[in-house]
Design a protein that fits this description.
Blueprint: E1 44-46, E2 57-63, E3 67-70, H1 71-88, E4 94-98, E5 104-108, E6 130-138, E7 143-149, H2 154-164, E8 172-176, H3 187-196
Antiparallel strand pairs: 1-4, 2-7, 2-8, 3-6, 4-7, 5-6
Helix pairs in contact: 1-2
C-alpha cells in the first residue's frame, strides 16, 4: 500500500568491503537461492552485428590485480565507456564488450544497529550472511573491457577506457591490441589470409 511509509533502509556497503578474493567462489546454485539480480544486464554495447572488417582496431582494459569487481562497478564502467564513445566517436563506430561476468555471490551479515536492538540481534551467532549482490572474480592480466572501432578512432577508445578506470578499484592498464578486431589473428595475418581468399 502506498500510504504506509517504508522503513528507512541503509545504503549499500562500499565496494571496498568486497574488493579482495578472500573466500572460495560462491556462485548462484540450487542451494544458494534468493540472489539479487546483477546490476549489469547488457555485456555487448554498440554495433555488435557489424562484420570484423569494419572495425579493425581493438583496445583492451587489462586488470592488474587479483580482486573482485562488483556488478555495480561493471555497469558504471560500461555506461561511462558507452557515453564517451557515443559523443566522441559517433553512435555507429564502435562495439564494446564487457568481458568478466559477475557470478560470485557476495554476502552480508545483517545486524540491527538501532536502540533496543540488543534484544533482537544475535551478534556473531549464526554469522553466515545473506546474499547481497554479485561480483566478478578477476585475475591479473585478465581483460575487463574490449572496444573495437575504426583505426582513426583508436585514441578516443583509449580515452573512454581511461575514464572507465575510475569506476574500478585497483590498477588497470590500457592495451592497444595487435589483433584484428575481436579475432585471434594479427592484422598482418588477417590481411594475408584475406588476400588469399
Amino acid at each position: 500500500s502506498s500510504s504506509s511509509t517504508p522503513l528507512p533502509t541503509m545504503g549499500r556497503r562500499p565496494a571496498r568491503c568486497y574488493r579482495y578474493n578472500k573466500n572460495k567462489p560462491y556462485p548462484k546454485t540450487r542451494y544458494c537461492r534468493g540472489v539479487p539480480d546483477p546490476k549489469i544486464r547488457i555485456f555487448d554495447v554498440g554495433k555488435k552485428k557489424i562484420p570484423c572488417d569494419e572495425f579493425p582496431a581493438t583496445v583492451h582494459m587489462v586488470c592488474d590485480e587479483y580482486q573482485q569487481l562488483t556488478s555495480e562497478a561493471l555497469e558504471a564502467a560500461r555506461i561511462a565507456v558507452n557515453k564517451y564513445m557515443i559523443t566522441n566517436a559517433g553512435r555507429d563506430f564502435f562495439h564494446i564488450r564487457m568481458r568478466p561476468h559477475p557470478f560470485n555471490v557476495i554476502r552480508i551479515n545483517k545486524t540491527l544497529s538501532c536502540a533496543g536492538a540488543d534484544r533482537l540481534s544475535s551478534g556473531m551467532r549464526g554469522a553466515f550472511g545473506k546474499s547481497y549482490g554479485t561480483a566478478a572474480r578477476v585475475d591479473i592480466g585478465q581483460v575487463l573491457i574490449s572496444v573495437r572501432t575504426k583505426e582513426e578512432k583508436c585514441q578516443i577508445a583509449c580515452e573512454a577506457l581511461r575514464r572507465a578506470k575510475f569506476k574500478f578499484p585497483g590498477r588497470q592498464k590500457i592495451h592497444v591490441s595487435s589483433k584484428f578486431g575481436f579475432t585471434r589473428f594479427t592484422k598482418d595475418d588477417y590481411a594475408k589470409w584475406k588476400a588469399m581468399g
